[in-house]
């Protein structure tokens, strides 16, 4: 099953509370697109069809309405780096690398540059894209685009721990919160505050917010129903 198909199934299944994007490969999370296809004699129209899959996948991840964890258990390179940055969290196994090596093979990370510039300081983004040198997971943590770096023996457990914590929250408030962040991320502050105030007023009408506050006051775990 492709990543896109799996994400579509997760989006449409109300029982899915969290999405984890990972790899079964021991060393590589993903190395991005197929360079051989780009070097082929196929037409420009055919070559453009493949890069078009990336923005559609990124858009799909952003519209899942559920938290998405990138479980970086191997090197995250080229287009896969953009895929990782589209997620809400990145948990990396100690020793893996992140990078944009495209410039070294006569390309440029055009599509993922938008995500890189939105997640990294400009000078660090330039360093990755223009030099094409990878950074370690430890460096990525200090640069601020990785949430946790975990030893290999603890990696699966760390991903599961965060997934369970996220799954235990209200799916309705999680969806409303993610939608609000998506809608206001590029707005000017006054417009963003107006939109967020409307979302907060709507949240006050939900049963889950009442249950959450009541549970806090009663010193117990909330029992959210998604309403």
Walkthrough of the structure:
It is a single chain. The strands form two sheets. The chain has a four-stranded parallel β-sheet. The protein has a four-stranded mixed β-sheet with strand order 2-4-6-7. The model has no long low-confidence stretch (mean pLDDT 89). With 227 residues, it is of the alpha/beta class. It is built from twelve helices and eight strands. Helices cover 53% and strands 12% of the residues. The protein starts with a helix and ends in a 10-residue tail after the last helix.
Concise overview:
By secondary structure, the chain is α/β, with parallel strands linked by helices.
What share of the residues does DSSP label as strand, in percent? 5-15%
Tell the overall outline: globular
Helix tally equals: 12
- Total strands: 8
Fill in the keyword field for this structure.
8 strands; 4-stranded mixed beta sheet; 227 residues; alpha/beta
Describe how the helices and strands are arranged:
Elements: H1 3-12, E1 19-21, E2 28-30, H2 35-38, H3 44-49, H4 53-62, E3 68-72, E4 75-77, H5 79-85, E5 89-93, E6 97-99, H6 110-119, H7 122-131, E7 135-136, H8 137-143, E8 148-150, H9 152-167, H10 171-184, H11 189-203, H12 207-217
Parallel strand pairs: 1-3, 2-4, 3-5, 4-6, 5-8
Antiparallel strand pairs: 6-7
